[in-house]
Amino acid sequence: LIMTKNMTRNHQHTPLALAIALAATLGAGSAQAVDFHGYFRTGISSSTNGDQQAWLPGKLGRFGNETEGWYDIALAQDVYKNEQGQVFGVYVNFDGDVALKRDWEPFDSGYKNGNVLQFSDMYATAKGFIPSAPEATIWAGKRGYEKRETQMLDYKPIGVAGNGAGVQGIKAGPGELSVAVLRKDADAVATGLTAVNELFNVNYFDVRYAKLPIFSDATVELIADYAMVNKTDSQEALEAAGTAYKAENAFIPTVILSKPLQNGFNETTIQATTKTFANNLVKLGYNETSFGVDNDYSDAKAFRIINTGEAYLSDKVIMSHAAVYAHGTDITPTTEKVNAFTLVARPAYIWNQNNKTALELGWFKQTNTVSGTDLEESGKKVTLAHVLTAGPSLLTMRPDFRFYTTYIKADKNEIDSWSFHDGKDHQISFGVQAEAWR
Description:
Blueprint: H1 16-26, E1 39-47, H2 57-60, E2 69-81, E3 87-98, H3 110-113, E4 115-127, E5 137-150, E6 155-172, E7 175-183, E8 186-187, E9 199-215, E10 218-230, H4 233-240, E11 250-261, E12 264-274, H5 276-282, E13 301-312, E14 317-329, E15 335-352, E16 355-370, E17 373-389, E18 400-413, E19 426-437
Antiparallel strand pairs: 1-2, 1-19, 2-3, 3-4, 4-5, 5-6, 6-7, 7-9, 8-9, 9-10, 10-11, 11-12, 12-13, 13-14, 14-15, 15-16, 16-17, 17-18, 18-19
C-alpha cells in the first residue's frame, strides 16, 4: 500500500469496493510487494466562538489554519520484469477530503456534507522500452502529473492533472527531459443570464528539463505548459455572439531554482504568464495551473516569485519560511491591477529528536484596483504549537502530532468580505492535529 500526497479538489464518486479489490489483487503476489510511504491529515479543532474557521491558508499559512482532513491512498505494483531491465507497472490513487465534523461522513455525501472521494490517478508505466533511452519511462492514463507544492501555503505553483500520456526521465545532456500531453477540459460560463452548458476541450502540452546544474550544488528546472483549446463550431458561435466568455490558448513558463543547505534547502520559483493563467497567479486562495473560462482574460498579464525553504539557525533552532510576491495587470476588463505579498515564517525550538515547539507567523496584503478603486485585503496569523514528531525537520519529517493555538485577525476584507462567526474580524482557535507523510 502506497499513500501519496496529491491534494486535488476535482472529484468523482467511485466505489470503495473497487479500491479494495485492486489492493487485494496487487498485494497478492507477496508480502514484500506491499510498500508504504504516505500522506494524511486529521484531528479535532474548535474556537472560543463556535467551530474553527480557516481563512486563506494560501496567504496566511496552513499551520493551525486547516479544518479539514485529507488523504491519499495509492496502489502500485510492477506487474512485469525481465532480465533486460524492462518493467511494466500500474498505479492507482484515490484521494479525498473529510470534513471532520460528524461521526458519519459517507464518501458519497459530496462537498455539502464535507466528504469527497475520487480516483486522481490511474495509469500504467513502461520503463526500458526505448532503445536510445532505456532509463526513460513511458506512461499513459489519468495522472496528477509531477505537481510542485508550496507546502506552507497550501497551493501548487504547478498543478497539471488529467488524462494523458508522456515520456519521463530522458537523459539529455547534464539534465533530464520529460514531455507529456494531458487533457484538462474547462467549463464555459455565461456572460449574462442565459445558461451555457458547454465544456471546452483543453489539452495541455508539458515540457520539462530538470536537474540542470548551474553552480556549486544548485540546480534548475525549466517547465513550459501550453494550454490549447480545441473548440467546436457551436462554441465559436457562442463566443462570437457574446453568450460565453472567449477561451484562448495560454502559456506559462516556470523556472525553479533549488539549492540544498546544511540539513535544509532553499527554492525559488519564477513564473510569468498571460491570459487565463495570469488570474491563477494573483487570485486569493488556492492557486494551481488551471484553465478558466469564467471571465474575459484576453488582456491579462502577471508574474509571481515564490521563495521557500528550511534552515538551521543554530543546533536547537530551525526555521522554515515562504515568501510570495505577485503582480498582475488587466486581469479582467474591470480589474486593472493586482499587487499581493505574503510572508510566513515558522521558527521552532528543538527540545530533542521527537519534541519541538513551533511558532508560525503569517502576514499578507493584497490590493486589487477595480474600476479605478483600490480594494484591500490583509490579515495576520500567529500559531503556537508543541509538536511530537519523527524528527527535527519542519517540512520533511513526519508524522507529527500538533497541539496548537491560533490567533487570526482580518485587518481588511474589501475583496472577499470575509468575517468569522457573528461578524467578528478575529478568531482564537485550538486543536490537535495529526499529519503523516513519509
